[in-house]
Design goal:
By secondary structure, this protein is an alpha+beta fold. It contains four helices and seven strands. The strands form three sheets. The chain has a three-stranded antiparallel beta sheet with strand order 5-6-7, covered by helices on one side. Strand 1 and strand 2 form a beta hairpin.
Length: 124
């Protein structure tokens, strides 16, 4: 969308028009991570750090889960908090490491946590 020759992302304009709050000092986050879903109930204000906690795993990550790297014979879980990487330990399986990452994500990112959907939990 444009106004006076300047372009603005649609979700930021929708936030401003619906809430009356200028999102200038914040990011407007899509709860479901779908940038096309600009319904107001899907939008929320977030700091840069909160929005970063709501990201999926990196595309170049060949492992199944977010926050997991291969480390020797095991899988290391790490989480980024306030610009720093925190090691959560090394585990025998990706699923164990992913479960530990999920615990830390809930603790550090709260409602903005993007959790791993663990294969073994899908069948429960």
């Amino acid at each position: 969308m444009s106004y006076k020759g300047k372009r603005y992302p649609a979700h930021r304009v929708i936030w401003l028009l619906t809430t009356g709050v200028d999102p200038a000092d914040h990011e407007v986050d899509h709860r479901d991570m779908n940038p096309s879903n600009n319904k107001i109930e899907n939008l929320r204000l977030a700091t840069h750090g909160q929005n970063a906690g709501n990201q999926n795993k990196f595309r170049n990550n060949r492992l199944k889960y977010k926050g997991i790297t291969k480390n020797g014979r095991g899988y290391q879980a790490c989480i980024g908090v306030k610009g720093k990487q925190i090691s959560l330990g090394t585990f025998d399986t990706q699923e164990e490491a992913a479960a530990r990452y999920n615990q830390a994500a809930l603790k550090h990112h709260g409602e903005f946590a993007r959790l791993n959907v663990i294969e073994s939990e899908k069948t429960l």
